[in-house]
């Protein structure tokens, strides 16, 4: 499995959620609404989820093992950092 595209939409408001991301797998399958969250230990991703009838949130789509989660998280966070740097450069140029 290869991640063939990552699309980062930065969140404009203040808070722990920094971006919402979509990834494409093998140019054939898309997963939307992966969140980039600022936690106590740094950035991490949260997979798409839905609130269940018991009030708990359950992932709709998620990796089966920790190695795959880590690979997806690494690629997403690299692209997020790149988008954040480009955004900061654009803001500086506008001043």
UniProtKB/TrEMBL annotation:
Pfam annotation, one family: SpoVG
Keywords, sorted A to Z: Cell cycle, Cell division, Septation
Biological-process GO terms, alphabetical: division septum assembly; sporulation resulting in formation of a cellular spore
Superkingdom, natural source: Bacteria
Matching Gene3D superfamilies: Stage V sporulation protein G (3.30.1120.40)
Purpose: Could be involved in septation.
Family: Belongs to the SpoVG family.
PANTHER family: SEPTATION PROTEIN SPOVG-RELATED
Protein name: Putative septation protein SpoVG
Species: Fusicatenibacter faecihominis
Lineage: Bacteria, Bacillati, Bacillota, Clostridia, Lachnospirales
Record gene name: spoVG
């Amino acid at each position: 499995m290869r991640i063939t595209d990552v699309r980062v939409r930065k969140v404009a408001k203040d808070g722990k959620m920094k971006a919402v991301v979509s990834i494409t797998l093998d140019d054939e399958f898309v997963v939307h609404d992966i969140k980039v969250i600022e936690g106590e230990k740094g950035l991490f991703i949260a997979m798409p989820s839905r609130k269940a009838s018991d009030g708990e949130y359950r992932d709709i789509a998620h990796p089966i093992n920790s190695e795959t989660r880590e690979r997806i998280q690494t690629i997403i966070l690299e692209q997020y950092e790149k988008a954040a740097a480009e955004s900061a450069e654009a803001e500086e140029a506008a001043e």
